[in-house]
Amino acid sequence: MRKIADSTVRRLSLYLRFLEEFEAHGDATASSAALAARGGTTSAQVRKDLSFFGSFGKRGLGYPVPDLIARLRAILGLNRRYRVIVVGAGKIGSALVQYHGFQERGYDFAALYDIDPKKVGKEWTGLVVRDVAHLERDLHRHPADIAAIVTPAEAAQGVADRVVKSGVSAILNFAPVQLVVPDAVAVKTVNLVLELETLSYALGTHA
Amino acid sequence: MRKIADSTVRRLSLYLRFLEEFEAHGDATASSAALAARGGTTSAQVRKDLSFFGSFGKRGLGYPVPDLIARLRAILGLNRRYRVIVVGAGKIGSALVQYHGFQERGYDFAALYDIDPKKVGKEWTGLVVRDVAHLERDLHRHPADIAAIVTPAEAAQGVADRVVKSGVSAILNFAPVQLVVPDAVAVKTVNLVLELETLSYALGTHA
Q: Which of B17, B40, B197 lies closest to A13 in CB terms?
């Protein structure tokens, strides 16, 4: 399958959520117009996004909801579970491992690491914080699919280098830095300060 | 000033960070190539992004660092402070109000709300959790610039309607729903499950 744009993948994730809502309401079919209305986009956009994966549904009848859900889950790689490790046992790291939404969607938090001796050995929602010195050994024994990096900015690149060297090929980065990784590694950076700055920019242009 | 794309605003935020690093290292000028290398983009992209705001710097000499920092801060609306309220005193709400990076950049968390009587009245890092029933009265007395919505999915739209009605024109939404708001209101949605799903999609295409 050819590589599709990040923005399309994000819309597919949203469509999946909307379809799950429709299914919970007992709907057997969903039109592109209904998906578009729910997601603040256009029917044409919905049809274009779904056309990446061959033809779904029939004109005028809408998409069969359970079938489209199954195909979107397969496309998004949600038919398996992912082993996720978290490096950095601070507030955001803690919020991450406690968030139930992840487990429901197939992401299992397998280990939590920190460098602070005061945190190592403590239990956080069922996970005992491990010394980050054990990272390589642990990953060798139990490979992880995704590493969430929730360290201070100055530590993030070093952690990224270590997990990549140990075979992790997807990183969710919360540190306010641009990580440098090999092309084969996928990185998503969540930078809350950046999000706030796009809002303050918007406030300025509205004023 | 004409409205610029969200993706450009995000890159400007990043350039600002990189320039602050350069300034901390004592650099007086920065080339577009240096900014591009730091941010994983191209010199042409940097020059294009900065050209939105008139001509900066001189060919061959690079951009004067302190001047460019000042202009980027002005463009991003960072020369003032913003009053931010948080609705939802859960793990993520708590992580938000405790994150120092926000205050450094001009975002002051002014109030934290919850609907749970067990949380109302408790102190969280200097803020006493207020009953969300007081939202309108509080906003009338002390208008806020930005509302962060960190409630469960089913409560988010109701909270958005209430803060918008009370004059808030920018929302940072952490609930896994697409909020419907008037055009004049800016919304940024941070959906961590979506971010993980773009990673699992990437893992699937790499495999």
A: B197
Phi, psi torsion values for A30, nearest 5 degrees: -140, 135
Whether residue A148 contacts residue A172, with contact meaning beta carbons closer than 8 Å, is answered with yes
Nearest to B19 by CA among B62, B79, B81: B62
Rounded CA gap, A36 and B88, in Å? 29
* Cβ atoms within 10 Å of A166's Cβ, excluding its own: 17
Answer for the pair B27, B75: CB distance below 8 angstroms, yes or no: no
**A100-148 per-position pLDDT tens digit:** 778 878 889 999 999 999 999 998 778 899 999 999 999 999 999 999 9
Give the domain-ending residue among B55, B75, B95.
Answer: B75
Integer Cα distance of B34 and A35 in angstroms: 43
As a whole number of angstroms, the distance between CA A83 and CA A95 comes to 17
Full residue range of the structural domain in which residue B130 is found: 82-194
Of B92, B200, B205, B206, which to mutate for an interface test with A (greatest number of A Cβ within 10 Å)? B200
Closest CA to A187 of A176, A179, A199: A179
Minimal CA separation from A17 to chain B, in Å? 9
User: Based on the structure, what is the number of domains in chain B?
Assistant: 2
Test B95 with A98 for CB contact under 8 angstroms: no
Mean per-residue pLDDT of chain A: 87
- Is 0.80 topped by the overall pTM? no
Partner B, chain A 114-143, Cβ-Cβ below 8 Å: none
Any residues with CB less than 8 A from the CB of B69 and at least 6 apart, and which?
B16, B19, B20, B23
> Based on the domain organization, do B90 and B69 belong to the same domain?
no
- CATH, residue B23: 1.10.10.10
Q: What does the pLDDT read at residue A53?
A: 66
In B, minimum Cα distance to A21 occurs at B177
CATH number of the domain enclosing B117: 3.40.50.720
The shortest C-alpha distance from B47 to chain A (Å) reads 19
DSSP state of B176: S
The interface pTM score, or ipTM, of the predicted complex is 0.73
Distance of alpha carbon A139 from alpha carbon B96, whole angstroms: 30
Which among B68, B36, B38 has a CA at the least distance from the CA of B54? B68
In this structure, the answer to whether residues B91 and B59 fall within a common structural domain is: no
